[in-house]
Each structure stands twice: as structure tokens, then as C-alpha cells.
């Protein structure tokens, strides 16, 4: 069966890293069919809206999308397109692996292998209740966590632990202060953990987690947490292993999944051809796994590691002088079946 994938090239460095990623996927000869759809600033210019219905229809039909970063204009009342996409398809699990890679100029080129499982649809990212006083003297926002939403993300993390042969799930919270919203999450996590006696479970308060991650990241295996904490912790994990150019993110729901890089559209380096394509490539590897191409995903990851090991055409964020495309070509040269 031919697998069709919705491809969203996105804004800023988006088209550059997507070209690089598709170049590598094509070299793997997987028989994937790409259906291009627009979102972000480019869609606003072409179609007059940031997230056209045709794009939602394409993702709904194919159930799998590979997406470059999107720029949401600040001001003008636009709500984040990424948040809209996650909400529309109920992509409740955001899975962000941070694994040590060789030659990254980071503090931890070995020993880190952490998957952050971030709740992706509720928490501080709830659409409701954003209010600022007319005179700007106060602002209020609502954080809403549900029992059902908390249970399903924690269950996802434990199921992932079993599937991926992981040993431990750390539940990260701030229930000592945020007694209601973090409390409901922690209580749900404690109950769900009882269903998985084979997986070790511990609890950690988010501020201590940040310190522990920087000091002793090797103690972590899978982290499960609420939306905002997951956003922050996964960027911290990116910093441990060499930066945002190396962390992918899968947004997974019951009926659809969107695979991307964790980073944004990087306007400071857009158009220069120097963005690191690895994060999106690793997102493509997550996508291959999701559609059942497990061996192919492993082959793609191995080619990325081998290229890093050889310091072949690395981009400037990794200390090299390569370009997005020369790096991709070096990886493509190592993925042939
Ligand atoms: P950013 O992730 O775009 O950039 C942060 C820093 O990391 C910059 O110095 C950038 O040059 C660097 N960087 C990011 N990706 C890189 C790569 N592949 N290779 C080398 N260096 C890389 O974050 P920022 O500047 O806060 O956001 C820029 C725009 O991206 C905003 O409009 C934001 O809304 C959007 N954004 C979109 C996301 C998505 O579509 N999933 C996620 C995060 C931000
Ligand atoms: Mg983020």
C-alpha cells in the first residue's frame, strides 16, 4: 500500500529543512507520496488565511503529516497555528526525544536518552480565559486540566515505556503550589501508574527537575508532564544534547499525527541555507515508525549518527561549515538500503 503524507513546508527555515528532509527520504526509496499543503505566513499570503480548510482536509484524509515550523504573526489577534492544529485533530501526546549524539559541542555527547511526553491540548494552552484589563493594569488566564486528559497522557507515557523497552517514568508536576491544576494531574498519574507495576515510576517537582536535568540527566528515562512544563523541559533537554536542531516532536492523536522539529522558523538564519535539518529528519524517523516502517526509521537514525560521527558537512550550530543541503546529502549518502 502506498502511504500518502501531507507535507507542510512552513515559514522561515521551513522550506530549506523540508527540501533537505525529502531529499534524504527520497534516497531511501520508501515509495512515499507527498501531498503538499500550506499553513503559516505563506498560506496567509497565498490564500488569505493562516490555516486553510484544504490543509485540514489533507491531514484528515492522510492521517499523517510532516510539518516544518510555522510563524504565527505576533499581535493582530492570531492564535497559534500549531495550537490550532493540535486542538483540531486532538493530538494529545507530544513526544520529544532528546538523545546524545556525537560531535555536537554539547555538554552531553553521551549518556542522555530522555523522552519528554508533553500533554498537548490543555493546561496553560487552553483557548479560554485570556483577559487583560483595558488599562493594562492586570491580566488573567485560565489553566484547565481534566482527569481524562491527565489519565490519557500518563497512560500514553507508560504504554510508550513498555513498547520502547523503557524502565522508568518520571511524573513532573508543581502540585505543591498549583494544587488544583497540577494536583489533578499528579493524582491521575498516581492511579494510572498502579496499572503498570512493571515500570518504575517516580514524582518530581518541576523546578527541581530542571536542576536535576542539568546536573544528572542520565537519571531520566521518560518524563510525563503537563503542557507548559513539557514545552520548557523539552527545550532544556535540547540544550543538553546540542541544541534545537536535534530534537524532533511527534504530535499524536487517535485519528491523526503530525511530525515536526521542536524548533521554530528561526528568522535569524532563514534564507541562508545553514539550518540544521536533523530535527525534522528525526521527526521523519518518528513518522516512519508510526506508519510501521520501524527498520527504515532505525536506518535513518543510524545514517544521521554516522554522519555526525564522521563530522561530514555539519552545519554551523554543530561547529561545522556545511549547509543544510550538503549535510542532507552526506546523510542521504549513508541511508541507501
Ligand atoms: P526558534 O526555534 O525559531 O529559534 C531559536 C534559536 O535557535 C534561533 O537562534 C535559531 O537560529 C536557532 N535554531 C532553531 N532551529 C535551528 C536549526 N534547525 N538549525 C540551527 N539553528 C536553529 O525560536 P523563536 O526564534 O523563538 O521563534 C521563531 C518563530 O518560530 C516564532 O514565530 C514562533 O512562533 C515560531 N515557532 C514555531 C514552532 C512550530 O512551528 N512548531 C515552534 C516554536 C516556534
Ligand atoms: Mg516550544
Features:
alpha/beta, Isopropylmalate Dehydrogenase, 11 helices, globular, binds 1,4-dihydronicotinamide adenine dinucleotide, binds magnesium ion, Isocitrate dehydrogenase, IsoCit/isopropylmalate_DH_CS, EC 1.1.1.41, IsoPropMal-DH-like_dom
State the shape: globular
The count of DSSP E runs of length 2 or more, i.e. the number of strands, is: 12
User: How can the largest sheet be summarized?
Assistant: 10 strands, mixed
Name of the CATH first level of the largest domain: Alpha Beta
Taking all Cα atoms into account, the compactness measure Rg is: 20 Å
Tell me, rounded to a whole number, the average pLDDT. 95
What ligands does this structure carry? 1,4-dihydronicotinamide adenine dinucleotide, magnesium ion
Distance between the termini: 19 Å
Q: How are strands sequenced across the largest beta sheet?
A: 2-1-3-12-11-4-5-10-8-9
Structural domain tally: 2
Fraction of residues in H or I helices: 40-55%
Number of helices: 11
Q: How much strand? A: 15-25%
EC number: 1.1.1.41
Protein name: Isocitrate dehydrogenase
GO molecular function: isocitrate dehydrogenase (NAD+) activity
InterPro entries: IsoCit/isopropylmalate_DH_CS (IPR019818), IsoPropMal-DH-like_dom (IPR024084)
